[in-house]
Structure formats: C-alpha cells, structure tokens
Design goal:
The chain has 304 residues and is of the alpha/beta class. It has a domain of 124 residues: Glutaredoxin (3-Layer(aba) Sandwich), CATH 3.40.30. It is 60% helix and 10% strand.
Amino acid sequence: MLNAFLTGGFATLLATPCSAPFVGTAIGFALARGPVEIVGVFAVMGLGLAAPYLAVAAFPGLVRLMPKPGRWMIILRRLLGFALAGTASWLLTVMAANSGSDMAILSGAAMVVVVILLAARRRLGERAPAARRLLGAAAVAAIAAAFLGPWLVAPRPSVQAEMPTGWRAFDLTELKRLVAAGQTVFVDVTAEWCLTCKVNKALVLDREPVAGRLRQTGTVAMRADWTKPDPLVTAYLASFGRYGVPFNAVYGPGAPQGIPLPELLTSDSVLGALDKASRTDAVARHDQSRNASAPPPVNSGVGE
C-alpha cells in the first residue's frame, strides 16, 4: 500500500503542469489566496487525477477497453524516458540562468552519476549484493550532493538580463507616464522557465507583422522578467486577476487601464488590441455613437 501511495504521489507531482495555459493559473490563484481556496483547488485537482482509478473501481468492466499489456509498453516507457531526459536538460539551462552555471553543472553531473550507478547496479542483478549496496549508497550520495549544491557552491551575484533590442525593462511609473503622453504600450511578462512564453515569442512577438508593429513610432514594448520572484511583478499580475505567466497587456489612449490578452497569443489578437488601444478618445466615442445609431442588421434568412 505504501509503494502504491508513493507512486501515485510521484505521478501526480510529475503530471501537474507548472505553468499556463492549463492548471498553472489555478495553482497560482490558490496559493495567493487563503486556506479554503488552497484546499478547494487542490482537492478538485486530486479528484480529477484519481477519476480514472475511481471509474475502474466502480465499473471493473472498463478494464476490457484498456490496451492489452505487451512490448508496446516497453517502447513507450523508453520514449517517455527520453522526453523526461530532455525536460531535465532544459531545466538545467533554466537553473543556469537563475542560479549560475556552476550550480547547473554540479546538478547535471550528479544526475549523470546517479544514472550510471543505477544502470551498473541493475546489471549486477543479485550476483553481488555487497556491490549492489555500495552502488546504491553512492547513488544516494550523488542525489544528496545535488540537493546540497546551493550550500556547496558560493552564490554569484545576480546579473540583470539584457533587454532585447527594441524592448524596455518594465516600469509601472514609466508605463503610466507613457500612456498619459498618448503612447501605446505593449507589456510582456515572461520567465525563463515558461515554455508557453517562449512559444509566444517565437511564433508571434518576434515575427512579422507583430514585431514590426512594436517597432513603430508611438508604440513602446516593455518586458517584465518573472524568472525569479518579484513582488512588484506579482502585484501587477494580481491587479488583472492573473497569478501566472505568460501575461500580456496593451495600453494606450483608447485603453488607459490596459487590455489583457489571452495566454496563447496570435498575431490577430495582438494587432487588434494594439489598434483598439491606440485609438484616441474622440475616435472611440465616434465609433460608439456610430454603432448606437446604426440600423439593426437585416436577416437575409441565410444560415451562417
């Protein structure tokens, strides 16, 4: 029973996404609230993860619909192993950016040593119990070294990441001043560990036509780095009811309070928000009055 419980807990830990657009925002919301919200959100998540097991327990006949065990399970396990190895490599790059290259190298080396020791221990089988125990102890020592790394390696002073060309560092006071001066401002809150942020940059923000629009006169692009906890950025996200990244908002004469964008960006959503925010109050009032006075559409009888 203990083995089954620990396996389920470990699977839950691995299966829970860390960021948007799935449950990351819900987790961030819960942790930023009180005990009731925390227990409620995590209870619902736990129920959802347990639902397949509960369904099979309630209706054992569902087992017949599941794939039969076979060699495909070994192949799938190996493929998932490669995926986890890739995830670990990516997390080491995040650690290097966040805690320094020394810490990342130490942790990566410890991981490699653990894999080698466990592989050697498995090859020994039951033939050399003393050697197996020695290799197991060495693997535990390597894991302990990885966890104790922050205390073994002297911390380096944090270095402010350089802003890409055409971007400014996020400053709420400067943001308000630019909007009051009639500028259109695009805010991008990102983090090194956020994969969705990187997808948004690669597919939308760093490509035409959005990249060209952000470089136009009268438009200012600001970026806030949330790789390390920043209370100012956290408070800014909370002002929009958001508790995770990616987060993007557009400000301007037509939207002084900001227009929050969806977590998964598209060129049309960004350009549409920029057009709406850059309109002056006079244009916005003209559009509203024109829409109010326009006759109702005629139903042609043709289905859409």
